[in-house]
Amino acid sequence: MSKIATLEIDGKKYEFPIVEGTENEVAIDIKSLRASSNVITLDPGYKNTGSCESAITFLDGEKGILRYRGYSIEELADKASFLEVCFLLIFGELPTQEELTKFHKDIKGQSIVDEDMKRILDGFPKSAHPMGVLASLTNALVAFNPSSVNVDSEEDMYKAIVKILGKFPVLVAWTMRKKMSLPLNYGDTSLGYVENIHKMMFQQPNEDYKVDRAVIEALDKLLILHADHEQNCSTSTVRIVGSSHSGLFASLSAGIAALWGPLHGGANQAVIEMLEAIKADGGDTSKFILKAKDKNDSFRLMGFGHRVYKNFDPRAKIIKKAADEVLGELGIEDPVLDIAKGLEKVALEDEYFISRNLYPNVDFYSGIIYRALGIPTDMFTVMFALGRLPGWIAQWKEMRLGKEPIGRPRQVYIGHTHRTFKTRSER
Ligand code: ACO
C-alpha cells in the first residue's frame, strides 16, 4: 500500500504521496502543495529538497557510500577505465569490449575542433583563469555546431555525446597550453582516451612524447572519482539550464561556471594555495586550525567538510592512498603532502571539526596528485570539469529523456509591499 504524508495548515489537512527510492530514500511528493493549499516550501540551498528522481548515482553521506549505476566507487576506481565509466554513467551499463571500442572510435572521429576556435582562444589574456576560458570555449562550441540535438532521436543524442567527449579534452588541453605559451595541437588517435588527453596537454614541440604508466593510471583514477556526484551545485546547474531546452554544450558551459567556485570544484586549487600559505608561514598547522574555528575570521579549512558526506568522503580515502602511491612511484617528495597529513590529523582530533562532522573531502588530496603530475594549480578545477563531464552529460540526458519540466523555484517575497512612486524632488 502506498504511504501518505499528512500536512496540517491552519486546521486543514492535506495529503501527499510518499515516494521511496531503491535505496530507501523517502521523499514527500509535494507537487500539488501550492495548487491545493497556496503554500510553498522554503529551503534555501535545497538541503532537504529532491529536485528529481535519478537512476545514475547513489550516495549515502552518513555511511560514506558512493556508487555509479550501482557499482561502488572503490571497485570502479580499482578495476574500470575512465572511458568505461563514461559509458556506464551515460548509457547505464558497463560496455562490452565491442561497445567500448566503437564508443572510443566514434569519440576519436569527433575530436577535431574547428580551427577558428583558436581565434577565440587568442582573444583571452594569458592571465585569464582557465575555468573562465573553458566555460567560454565550451559555449563557443555551440556556434560551431549550431544544430540543436533532437533528444527524441537516439542517433542524434549519441552524436552530441561523442562530439563533446571528443572535443572537450582538446579545449582543456588548449586552455592549458595557451597559458603555458605552447603551440596548440590535436590528439593522437592511436592512444587511449586518457593517455591522449595527457599527450595533448603535455607534449613539448621539440621532444618525443613519453609518459610514465603511473601518471596515466593516477589521472584515470582521479577522473573516475570526479565523474559524478548526483545533484551537486554544478550538476543541478546543468540540469536546470538544460531544462529550458538550452543545448547540451550551453548547459555544460553553465555547469563549468558553477564548478569554478571555491566552495565547489574550486576547492582543489584553494587547498593547495592554503597548504602553500601554511608552508610559507612556517608550517604551523595549529595556527590555521584556530583561524578556521574563529567565527570572526572568514578563513575555512579548504578541502574539509561536505554538504552530504557527514562521516567521511569515500573518494578522499581512495585519493589519499593514490597520492601516496603516485608520489612514491614518481619519486616525488612534496612537503605540502606532509602538511596536508598533519592538518588532517589535528583537525580529525579537534572537537570543532568532530562535532560538525567535518572530514577531508575529495579535493583535500586531489591537488597534491595534480601537482605531482605537473598540472598547474589554476588548472586543477579544469581537471575536475574534465572528470565531471560524463556525469553532467548523463544527468542532462536523463533530465531531457525524462521530459522534466523547466526548473523554476518559487520564493517567499520579503520586500516592500506596494508603494506609490515618488518623483525625484519628493525623495
Ligand atoms: N572549515 C571550518 N569550518 C567549517 C568548514 C570548514 N571547511 N566547513 C564547514 N564549517 C563549519 C561552518 O562554519 C558551520 O559552523 P557553525 O555551525 O558553527 O556555523 C558548520 O561547519 C556547518 O557549515 P555549513 O557551511 O553550513 O555546511 P554546508 O554543508 O552548507 O557546506 C561546504 C559544505 C560548502 C563544502 C563547507 O564545508 C565548506 O565551505 N568547505 C570548504 C570548501 C570545500 O572544501 N569545498 C569542496 C566541497 S567538495 C566538492 O565540491 C567536490
- Which structural category fits the helices and strands? mainly alpha
What is the number of beta strands?
6
Measured distance between first and last alpha carbons: 63 Å
Low-confidence stretches: none
List the helices and strands in order: EEEHEEEHHHHHHHHHHHHHHHHH
Shape annotation: globular
Helix content bin? 40-55%
Gyration radius (Cα, Å) is: 23 Å
Bound molecules: acetyl coenzyme *A
Number of helices: 18
Largest sheet: 3 strands, antiparallel
Q: What's the overall average pLDDT, rounded? A: 94
Please report which band the strand proportion falls in: under 5%, 5-15%, 15-25%, 25-35%, 35-45% or over 45%.
5-15%
Q: Give the strand order of the largest sheet, numbering strands 1, 2, ... along the chain.
A: 1-2-3
SSE blueprint and pairings:
Blueprint: E1 4-9, E2 12-20, E3 26-28, H1 33-37, E4 57-60, E5 65-68, E6 71-72, H2 73-79, H3 82-91, H4 97-108, H5 117-122, H6 130-144, H7 154-179, H8 193-202, H9 213-225, H10 233-242, H11 248-260, H12 267-280, H13 285-293, H14 314-330, H15 335-348, H16 351-355, H17 362-372, H18 380-401
Antiparallel strand pairs: 1-2, 2-3, 4-5, 5-6
Bound molecules: acetyl coenzyme *A.
